[in-house]
Amino acid sequence: MIAQSIRCQNDLELSKKLLEHPEVIQVKETIARMEGKKNMGLRRRLLSSSVRLSRDMAPDIHRIADQCIETLGMKIPLELYVFASPQFNAMCFKPEDGRLFVMFASSLLESFTQRELCFVMGHELGHHIYGHHTIPIGYLLGGDAKPDPRLALELFAWSRYAEISADRAGAHCSQDLDSVARSLFKLASGLTGKTISFNLNDFLNQIDDMQLVDAEPGISAPKEDWFSTHPFSPLRVKALKLYDESEHVRDDGMSKADLEIGVQSLMGLMEPSYIEGKTETAKFMRRLLYAGAIAIADASNGIGPEEVKIFEKFFGPGEFSSKLDVTRLKEDLDNRVNNACLNTSIPQRMQVVRDLCVVAQASGRITDEERDVLEHIADGLNISRGFISRTIKLLIEPD
Fold this sequence. Notes:
The protein is mostly helical. It has 20 helices and 4 strands. The chain has a 4-stranded mixed β-sheet with strand order 1-2-4-3, sandwiched between helices. Helix 18 (346-361) runs antiparallel to helix 19 (368-380).
């Protein structure tokens, strides 16, 4: 099987769209000029801050890497590194001088079985074979010049689908759904498996419960993980289960088209599709986002030209005018919050809060007054203030 054939379709389509975006092109050109002037020194930093795993030191790890390289059809020299950390983690870096670098946390190497490591290795190499490093998302979201808010949302969405593709590459290498799910279980729980007997069906049932239960205020923390790419998302496990039931894996499996539809349905919980959506739920979400964005923009010294620019980038040209009744919209904010509570799910409310954070952060910084508005909205939606803090600090970089 050709690895490119199992790539998530939305990852591919969003990637192509992003690579044609003027801001992405500009940042890539800036990075290329920087790299042209001097070597970025990645390998030097890895050699000085971690331990390179030679074939003599780690023959089993290299055997796993060789297997994944052959399975994925790669043709690039690979160097493996380990760094001291109690947290399970792994990352693949953009190639430098014709070499690809993959680094693992020491705890992960010591706690994962070879089949589980095969999934992790394949996942990291998947980021390379699918060209995920060609979109400099860290620079775009973390740089001094914040991106167009709509571009930011597209970057978040693409990053999640990039993880789906990388997961499929890992599953393709492992060829063992139980080991794949166990890997994600370990990443989610931090457990090594020495004291707990893992059961795939029980784990999948838990994920179903997390999706279906309408959580009460204060106990919605598990769902907050749906909005984080790392280290774990229950939606990824469900997406991998669908992949395992598809014709990619089984001769009599569901079609590729049905697989992508299934994944799209799962990931819909995390996407800003409500901005153009026609459903009643989308309407309540969109009305809240609109009024919330106005309230945030007006929180510090009124709405100036910069706030208007950001608002229109998000909602479209001409959406803000002198005739817009800002006072009325702010007075109606609590009503819109209440309507959202009555007509949307916890994950959907979290999506609006996260999008409001993107709007607020687009100006480069979030003032105390803007933060107060965000927290007021979150309180009304029964979303923890900690979710705001994590969202504001979040910079997604495909590992």
